[in-house]
Amino acid sequence: MGQFRVGEAQVSQVMLQQALDSSDLIGRWEYDVSNDRVYADALVALVFNITPAATAAGVSLDAFIAGVHPDDRERFVHEIKRSTETGLPCTFEYRVCSAYGVVRWVLDRGRITLDRAGRPLRGSGVLIDITESRLGENEEGLQQNSHGVHPLERAAEHCLAARQAIKELPEPLLHRMSDMLLLEVGRALANLTTKRRREAMN
Question: Does 1 reside within a domain?
């Protein structure tokens, strides 16, 4: 835990904001449940209006909840609670109040690992900015759909599990490769979500 370094970004707040304004923004997060510490990269920090230094060192889950749009906080907490109780992967969309007061839509995909006694240990996932695809769309009825489990959703689940296991190995190359794979699967999952939403509107 805590492997996110501010130096990895090597960018200023202005450059981070420019990154936020681009499409397909993807960031990573990890959650140490027992110690209530969430670690995330600089892009996730800016989305939630938290300093990159804080998320590199680890902040409480409440700090992230505070960044969620008030109308979506209850559902956000419910999804986190469900995942920590069941260990099942969760994929859901919600709004965040990011830096400079901008409201953005994100797609969050993650999973909490449980120990043999069923207690939550740690979690990891990806956060994808889908604001652009949300603009001008009718949100009603789009939170739920009748689709079955898509291969990309299964792939994301396996990638998250593999990444958690690989992080325990002293293999930097495998760490980077697992991160790259997870981010690419996350990007494809975001495209799938956008496609499903458009189909639901037609």
Answer: no
Written as six digits, the tokens of 123 are 């979690």
Reported as a single tens digit per residue, the pLDDT across 3-37 is 544 444 444 455 455 555 554 567 889 999 999 99
Range of the domain at 68: 6-201
Can you give the length of the chain in residues? 202
CB-CB contact of 43 with 25 (8 Å) = yes
What strand order describes the sheet that includes 90-97? 37-40, 26-32, 120-129, 103-114, 90-97
Residue 97 φ/ψ region, left for φ over 0, alpha for ψ in the -120 to 50 degree band, beta for the rest: beta
Strand 120-129 vs strand 37-40: parallel, antiparallel, or unpaired? unpaired
* 61 touches 48 (CB < 8 A): no
3-state secondary structure of 118: coil
Q: What's the structural domain count of the chain? A: 1
Q: What share of the chain is helix, strand, coil (3-state, %, to 5)?
A: 50, 20, 30
108-132 pLDDT, tens digit per residue, is: 988 899 999 999 999 988 888 888 7
pLDDT band at 54 (very low <50, low <70, confident <90, very high): very high
CATH of the domain at 180: 3.30.450.20
